[in-house]
């Protein structure tokens, strides 16, 4: 049975692992004889120079800074000449294995002298000086570079641990954590031997370099596989095992020392894997070309990853492989690796790398609260010479008064960035929107807009989600919203622009919004059904009562004029009844009806008609009210042209752009001044109908008074009360 651990417990386990590595580094670093001297290499004359003497150390008051150390010896032993390479920071900074092994041999010889009760030191200016070394090195004497390296590995490991704790089911997150364990191995080993005072046991030194090399195998080999899996898996091959196995071959070459040059087993393999990382980075970048959000995230990740690797290759491995000194010390070179992890940490906030959000950082705040107390306590105890009881009390006070308040302010700052919603205003707004007859066609768009406002997701897409309940998937990364009626189901990803997970409270809020939409939609449909039923009842009454009476008037008319008037009225009544019984009418059919009616009227009035209409690629539906209003608007305009303009020619142009119908009707008769014309009932009716349709009318006279032009446009996606 698989045991699942909460992210908090994973952080505790990770903190224990980190504490083991740090304790390992500190214990081996201080378990050495102590002179109280720090040395530096003089590149001008290839000598070892005293850089600093610690106060209160065995060498305090006996030696002057700047003097050159020539040799060391026990009281009875021969001199052992100190060479320029004896205090080399990293034994990998040589070309040949013979030079590499000679470093360990000489370290053993010097260490055997330093463990004696009394040591003779020979200086260029001061001559021979006898020192009584301390049996153990104080923690406070460990140099800044030691603590800097510990800080680098701590920061990098916490970032990788945060990724793994929340995404441990993904291979990329596992690989990221494993390569950070490799980083712990080689930085811990390097922090011990690079911060030695003068010498440590050569056998231990060599074992630490092997730990460094195998840690590098884990970091480089498994780290390369991160780009194989993230953000898109390049191939189904489990590359994590193959990449690690390949680099282990190179690590074995170093362990067995098959080649004379260290380039073939140390530097060239690293350079090769970095170049291979670059190829994988290019491949991943191409795979995200159709995903702008993914492209932005992977670009940030690749910059952090590749810049960090290339920096350490260029600053250290390339110069040494060419026979030169590295451009930067090993301790400070780790900052390029930390830059990788720091860049990824920033990317978690900005682009949701590894699909994480602020919960990772909240876990770090929790862990670092305890770490802060320990660090402050150690500082007060070791550096300020305060008793442990007082040191603990002071550290608790400082962390409680300074660290925790500052952390809380930062936390509240990030929380305040989340979008705050006033639900007391939102819910009534949803009701108004759904029940507003003018916005009925936009309910589906407003459905998405509401969830965009409430949750501010990075991504929202329609989905085929078939369940009836709102639910969270993928550990809170996505929220699924069921649709209904004509409303689509949607999938929301990355709440608050990727700053947090979806929670159970979000499910409750989304469910209440869905219920509100659903009930309001049911009410609207019931209302519309009632309107339809009432419209059909009115249509039946008009047909059975008024229609029958008009038909009787046609047959009983005393003259033909009255009969024609009755027939015309009966025709209009049938149009009204048809509109009441047929709420939907195609625009193409409406075009045909308008064309026939206007052409017949123009023919009767001996007016030439020019008609132009668009070809419809898809069917557009008008409701009864839209069709009737448009028909009467066009009829009234044509009536005005026939009665008042004395025109012999009439043109009508119809076009459709962006779901709007544009109509231009022009007569070529007697013009008028639109500003001074008296608006009669006909123009007022046109204006009212256009307003009801949500359209616009522009009335103008042609040049030199040669005609009049009506320019109208109407929205076709606006629902009008029927």
Report on the structure:
The chain has 722 residues and is of the alpha+beta class. Helices cover 59% and strands 13% of the residues. The protein has 19 helices and 17 strands. The chain has helices spanning 7-30, 97-114, 144-167, 171-194, 202-229, 239-256, 263-287, 292-321, 330-351, 358-382, 388-416, 423-435, 443-455, 495-498, 504-556, 560-581, 587-604, 624-645, 681-693; strands at 37-42, 47-53, 68-74, 80-81, 119-123, 127-131, 459-463, 471-473, 478-481, 489-493, 584-586, 608-612, 621-623, 649-657, 660-667, 696-701, 708-715. Strands 1, 2, 3, 4, 5 and 6 form a six-stranded antiparallel beta sheet that branches. It has a five-stranded mixed beta sheet with strand order 12-14-15-17-16, with helices on one face. Strands 7-10-9-8 form a four-stranded antiparallel beta sheet. A hairpin with a 5-residue loop joins β3 and β4 (80-81).
Largest sheet: 6 strands, antiparallel
Secondary-structure-derived class? alpha+beta
* Total number of beta strands: 17
Helix share, percent: 55-70%
Envelope shape: elongated
Q: Report the average pLDDT across residues.
A: 78
Spatial separation of the terminal alpha carbons:
65 Å
Radius of gyration (CA) equals 43 Å
Strand content: 5-15%
The number of distinct helices, counting runs of at least 4 residues, comes to 19
pLDDT < 50 runs, ≥5 residues: 357-364, 415-419
């Amino acid at each position: 049975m698989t045991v699942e651990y909460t992210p908090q417990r994973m952080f505790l386990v990770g903190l224990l692992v980190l504490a083991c590595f740090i304790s390992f580094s500190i214990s081996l670093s201080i378990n050495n004889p102590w002179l109280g001297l720090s040395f530096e290499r003089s590149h001008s004359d290839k000598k070892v120079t005293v850089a600093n003497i610690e106060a209160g150390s065995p060498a305090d008051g006996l030696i002057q800074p700047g003097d050159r150390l020539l040799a060391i010896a026990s009281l009875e032993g021969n001199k052992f000449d100190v060479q320029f390479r004896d205090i080399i920071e990293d034994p990998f900074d040589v070309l040949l294995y013979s030079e590499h092994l000679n470093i360990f041999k000489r370290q053993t010889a010097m260490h055997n002298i330093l463990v004696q009760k009394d040591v003779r030191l020979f200086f260029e200016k001061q001559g021979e000086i006898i020192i009584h070394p301390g049996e153990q090195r104080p923690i406070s004497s460990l140099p800044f570079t030691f603590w800097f390296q510990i800080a680098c590995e701590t920061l990098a490991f916490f970032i990788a641990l945060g990724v793994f704790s929340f995404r441990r089911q993904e291979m990329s997150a596992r690989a990221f954590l494993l390569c950070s364990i490799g980083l712990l191995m080689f930085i811990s080993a390097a922090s011990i031997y690079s911060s030695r005072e003068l010498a440590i046991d050569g056998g231990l030194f060599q074992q630490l370099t092997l730990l460094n090399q195998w840690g590098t195998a884990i970091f480089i080999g498994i780290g390369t596989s991160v780009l194989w899996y993230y953000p898109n898996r390049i191939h189904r091959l489990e590359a994590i095992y193959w990449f690690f196995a390949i680099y282990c071959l190179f690590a074995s070459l170093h362990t067995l020392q098959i080649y004379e040059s260290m380039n073939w087993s140390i530097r060239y393999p690293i350079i090769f894997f970095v170049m291979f990382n670059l190829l994988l980075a290019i491949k991943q970048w191409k795979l995200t070309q159709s995903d702008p959000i993914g492209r932005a995230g992977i670009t940030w990740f690749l910059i952090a990853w590749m810049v960090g690797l290339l920096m350490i290759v260029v600053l250290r491995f390339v110069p040494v492989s060419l026979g030169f000194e590295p451009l930067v010390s090993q301790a400070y070179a780790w900052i390029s690796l930390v830059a990788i992890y720091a860049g990824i940490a920033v990317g978690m906030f900005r682009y949701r790398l590894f699909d994480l959000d602020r919960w990772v950082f909240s876990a770090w705040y929790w862990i670092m609260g305890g770490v802060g107390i320990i660090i402050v306590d150690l500082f007060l105890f070791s550096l300020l010479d305060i008793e442990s009881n007082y040191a603990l009390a002071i550290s608790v006070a400082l962390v409680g008064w300074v660290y925790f308040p500052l952390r809380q302010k930062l936390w509240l700052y990030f929380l305040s960035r989340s979008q705050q919603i006033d639900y007391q205003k939102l819910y009534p707004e949803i009701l108004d929107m759904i029940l507003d007859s003018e916005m009925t066609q936009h309910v589906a768009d407003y459905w998405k807009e509401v969830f965009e406002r409430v949750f501010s997701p990075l991504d929202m897409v329609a989905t085929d989600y078939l369940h009836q309940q709102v639910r969270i998937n993928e550990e809170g990364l996505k929220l699924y919203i069921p649709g209904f009626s004509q409303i689509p189901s949607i999938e929301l990803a990355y709440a608050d622009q990727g700053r947090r997970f979806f929670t159970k409270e979000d499910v409750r809020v989304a469910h209440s919004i869905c219920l509100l939409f659903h009930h309001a939609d049911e009410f609207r449909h019931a209302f519309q059904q009632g309107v339809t039923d009432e419209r059909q009842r009115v249509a039946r009454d008009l047909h059975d009562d008024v229609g029958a009476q008009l038909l009787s008037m046609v047959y009983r008319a005393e003259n033909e004029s009255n009969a024609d008037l009755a027939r015309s009225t009966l025709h209009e009544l049938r149009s009204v009844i048809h509109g009441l019984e047929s709420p939907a009418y195609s625009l193409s059919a409406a075009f045909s009806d308008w064309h026939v009616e206007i052409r017949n009227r123009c023919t009767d009035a001996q007016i030439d008609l020019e008609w132009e209409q668009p070809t419809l690629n898809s069917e557009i539906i008008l409701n009864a009210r839209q069709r009737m209003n448009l028909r009467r608007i066009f009829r009234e305009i044509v009536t005005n042209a026939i009665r008042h303009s004395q025109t012999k020619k009439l043109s009508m142009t119809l076009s459709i752009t962006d779901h709007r119908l544009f109509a231009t009707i022009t007569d070529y008769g007697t013009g008028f001044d639109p500003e001074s014309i008296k608006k009669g009932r006909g123009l007022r009716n046109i204006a009212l109908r256009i307003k009801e349709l949500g359209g616009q009318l522009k009335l103008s006279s042609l040049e030199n008074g040669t005609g009049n032009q009506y320019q109208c446009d109407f929205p076709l996606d606006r629902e009008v009360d029927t």
